[in-house]
Please model this.
Amino acid sequence: MKKIAVLTSGGDAPGMNACIRAVVRTALYHNLEIIGFRHGYEGLINNENLQLQHKSVANIIQRGGTILKTSRSQRFRTDEGLQQAANTLKKNNVDGLVVIGGDGTFTGAIALSKLSNVPIVGCPGTIDNDLVGTDFTIGYDTAINTVIDAVDKIRDTAESHDRVFIVEVMGRDAGLIALRSGIGAGAEAILIPESKNDIKELIERLKSGQRSKSSKIIIVAEGDESGGAYKVADILKKEFPQFDMRVSILGHMQRGGSPTCMERVNASLMGYNAIQALLQNKQGVMIGIVNKQVTFTPFENAIKHTQALNADMLKMMEILSL
Model:
């Protein structure tokens, strides 16, 4: 193995740069040539590559986003696009590929591996934390800390005005951001797609606590069956006309910002082990960290979101919010 390539694909996540830095410097330590493809799989199709050196990744560990840029490529979903990507790897004499991204990125890696004999390993980069085979994905810790910081500020004004705030966070298919940040921020209720939510139960909970609390924060994952923050607000307004009901959509701010210390360390560990995995002839696996141990999960298993939410955490949230 002489030449490695790296790319970031799908949604950006804080910590991706730390992972890129680790991949590049570990490859150079082993006297491997390392190139990066810009704009993810789209850039792989277009052969948008650049040579990477130590100075290429200097002073990026603290930066959010990704210096390699990213995208969601529609062409890569076609047979023609996949073949062009495979041809690009062959044209550049790439001996191993590291992809950093989430479910779609690893699905693409599976498809690409069927047309190319280049070994591919992945690092889990997504704020949703919805991949099997790692306790924390790159970007998740920073995202939930961003949510908590925002909710803490929202609560200040909620307490001053006896307001009910419905805060919508990212999580189209997974409610892990909502669950953990809701517990950390002391939310009165958390609505997530994995748990069937009864709006009547929410109303009763709010009624039982309205005398003891001067502010009420409800965290809603964007993919929850309730229909999102605005629909929840409309329902609650009819039940609590005395409250000033406000909605706050945090949106893409959850993807930005400087990665936390834990994020940087985990991302560096994953990037370092991605190169080690390729040197050990591993392929088709996602690098993860489970119980502080590095793990290697086949892409096919990592992208199947079958993890059940921790029932104890849900029960704890209910008790602590009373």
Remarks:
- The first helix runs from residue 16 to 29.
